[in-house]
Amino acid sequence: MMTTPKEKETKKEEKATQKNIKLKGSEIIKRLSEFSEELQDAISHDEKIHLLVNFDNFLKTNKEFIKRNCPDKLVSILRSI
Amino acid sequence: MSDATFTKSKEKVINCIKNNLNIDVSEVPISYMDNIDFYKVIKQNYKLSSETYQNIELVKERYKLLCEIIPGLYKWKDEKVYIKNEAKFDFSLLLAELLHSKSITKRNTQIRKWFSEGLIHYLEKILCELCDIRYIESGHRDYFVIWEKIYNKYSLDVLKTIIFAEDLKISIGIMKHIFHYEKDDILKISLSKILTLLKNI
Fold first, then answer.
1. E strands present in chain B
2. Other C-beta atoms within 10 Å of B141: how many?
3. How far apart are the C-alpha atoms of B89 and B68, rounded to whole Å?
């Protein structure tokens, strides 16, 4: 079956969107790992408080993705708090 | 107060919460009611001790008293704000009840005592000042000393995260680090001990 130029364009866009989601997802996972390390490395109480506030903001923005794709990482961080 | 002014004032409260805490409470249902209906809500929301229930007159008296003292409440079960008609124009009350709707205090009495009745009403005070809303002094001001100290040393963001965190562990974690208290569960230690720990902040 022949694909029309319009269909080709739509497929291209879909692929690009999927790539964006993947890229965004990998960034989220990377940041989640960084938070885990930063929380372990934080020495002062104030630094930890600041990190927890930032972590909560990050969690609120990306919770759907995190719950769906890497709940184990989230549980591990929450346990360490 | 005209209907238009009333709606505008309500919107001011909702916008104040959105602009300062980035929390959307615009969808939370609000019900204004007369004293008889409010009495029914109070009865459904507050359970008395089993001993009290043995005396019907005492039950009536207790609920009547609660109804006189409480001007409004957020009912977790209905996910709705109930306000007495006579308190309709108390917009600081509305602000506090709307904040309750998004807090993490559900089903935890210790948290409810400190965080909900202390922190929520302290935030009510702060937001009323920031948004120029008439503030009516809270009956929960005994707890304010904790939150005032934390607000002065840290920020509104820290207070916000304690009460509206995505997970209770984050709230507890922040409290532990604030009080340099890592051994026990911060929620199990008494208020008097918290007040002692406050000196170290």
1. 30-33, 72-75, 80-84
2. 13
3. 17
Say whether A78 and B172 touch across the interface (CB within 8 A).
no
Model pLDDT for residues B101-126, shown as the tens digit of each residue: 999 877 666 677 777 778 999 999 99
pLDDT, tens only, A13-50: 555 555 445 448 888 888 888 998 998 888 898 999 99
| Single pTM value for the model | 0.83
Tokens 């963001």 sit on residue: B157
Is ipTM beyond 0.85? no
CA B15 to chain centre: 18
Cα–Cα nearest to B128, from B94, B161, B102, B155: B94
Of B150, B142, B93, nearest to B113 (Cα)? Answer: B142
Task: Report the C-alpha gap between B99 and B131 in whole angstroms.
Answer: 15
Chain B nearest C-alpha distance from A37 (Å): 16
Distance, in Å, from the CA atom of B156 to the CA atom of B176, rounded to the nearest integer, reads 18
B84 touches B35 (CB < 8 A): yes
Q: Which two tokens stand for residue A33?
A: 């790992």
Read off the DSSP letter of residue A3: P
Question: Given CB atoms, is B177 within the 8 Å cutoff of chain A?
Answer: yes
Q: Residue B97's closest CA among B111, B66, B76?
A: B76
> CB distance A52–B173 less than 8 Å?
yes
CB contact under 8 A, B166 and A63: yes
